[in-house]
Design brief:
The complex is a heterodimer of chains A (137) and B (407). By secondary structure, chain A is an alpha+beta fold. Chain A is built from five helices and three strands. A three-stranded antiparallel sheet of chain A has the order 1-2-3. In chain A, strand 1 and strand 2 form a beta hairpin. In chain A, helix 2 crosses helix 5 and helix 4 packs across helix 5. Chain B has 407 residues and is of the alpha/beta class. The longest helix of chain B is centred in the middle third of the chain and has 37 residues. Chains A and B meet through strand 1, strand 2, strand 3, helix 2 and helix 5 of A and helix 8, helix 10 and helix 12 of B.
Amino acid sequence: MAYSNKVIEHYENPKNVGTLDKSDPSVGTGLVGAPACGDVMRLQIRVNDDGVIEDAKFKTFGCGSAIASSSLATEWIKGKTIDEAESIKNSQIVEELNLPPVKIHCSVLAEDAIKSAIADFRKKQEARAKNGQTNGK
Amino acid sequence: MALKFPIFMDNHSTTPVDPRVVEEMIPFFTTKFGNAASRSHRFGWEAEEAVDYSRERIAKVIGAKDNKEIAFTSGATESDNLAIKGVAEFYKDRGNHIITTVTEHKAVLDTCKRLEKEGYQVTYLGVGKDGRVDPDDVKRTITDKTILVSVMLANNEIGAVQPLEEIGKITRERGVLFHTDAVQGIGKVDFDVQRFNVDLASLTAHKIYGPKGIGALYVRRSRPRVRLVAQMDGGGHERGMRSGTLPVPLIVGFGKACDIMTQEGKSESARLFVLRERLRTRIMSRLDEVYVNGSVEHRLPGNLNISFNFVEGEGLMMAIKDVAVSSGSACTSASLEPSYVLRALGVGDELAHSSIRFGLGRFNTEEEVDYVADLVVDKVTRLREISPLWEMHREGIDLKAIEWAAH
């Protein structure tokens, strides 16, 4: 199967590979997929006080399309608010990377990874807010 | 010598035709183009003579006594179909039970599945971690209804060489016919239809540096005389077993390819074994968490199937795109199911997704092996740096303890 040039470009020069401190309250971590299924994505975001994603990092175990999808996802969400990032659809990734039908699940996984990182961040914020109230009493 | 790209290391899928084979084939396209079934003129006689000479050369490489025991087909898939369906149909009054293994080629497995739908009983024997079937399992499974045992000579994915000699003793003693899909092992590992008591053997030219589109079925003619029902009706060629005009140039090429194997197979296997071990040690001495799938001892000399833990197979293939190999990862198929052969060995799905099959062949060189080993080590290292699983492994997290959401 031939890969599109965009997949090859992201695969060979992936953007934003790395790790953020997952214990940091401003960091949200999404870990989706399963080793037994052949792909696992970990996508992390650092969100500032205005709700803007300042930084995003990923690591992916998977095929070229999975690596490219997660690399693209980190690129797209950087500088966006979490609400904007949450609205990214897998179909946009499919379109941008020219993914063939058998690789659509890679884009689905990338969308899930974004949502999962945001959910993790929100959960942390809620827990923090709750603790804050408790402390204030 | 300068390396030429891309490098072909997928010799279990197919092989290039040896130039010596091509050379012998050419006159049979142009000047000696006769139909081997034409009895009335020189063109036909010449073609028939060439076909019979090829039968002799093919018979010789598998230890068959009589060149009439070689029936030409389009390839091993057809041979497997003809052997299994043909025997099942002919001997249906004697019994309806067939024994095979879970790691057979799909041409055998799907043929057996078809027969099950028609009322036959099929036992699919499991294999050990080394990919080999236990001959005692065959012995235990044979009943008075068993008509055929089908076990491959060597596996196409993991190169495991099956204990055919032991199985042949059992089937002969019990009066059960014994078929083997021998395509991967001909000229490469020890095989002899007499010594192994094999009654039917599927062969193909394109795995041994011959042309695609030609195969054969060895059908024993005496002690016992094997009978089968033809699966295609027509002019009654090949002693009624397989109708159709013989593709003489392909048959000539097949014969030459077998002749080269008879002459050079042993020394070639010794050379490939050295290359394979060179590749294996150059990779495994420099990387952790690399596992050989299948037996190291009972293995095709040119086969290396290894899993690079925490790196996905198709992703790795993309990183070494100038090297042609294959993977047990299912990422290219829509099913998301990794290799059924690796599964049968008990290799976990995650390691199956991380597997690469290297198939060394006649035209691979030591320089190529060294280049590929270095490249693989470099790319696996790079891919592990971007693998979350590798990072978790390094942090001491037990990946098996995590509840992954299957997707």
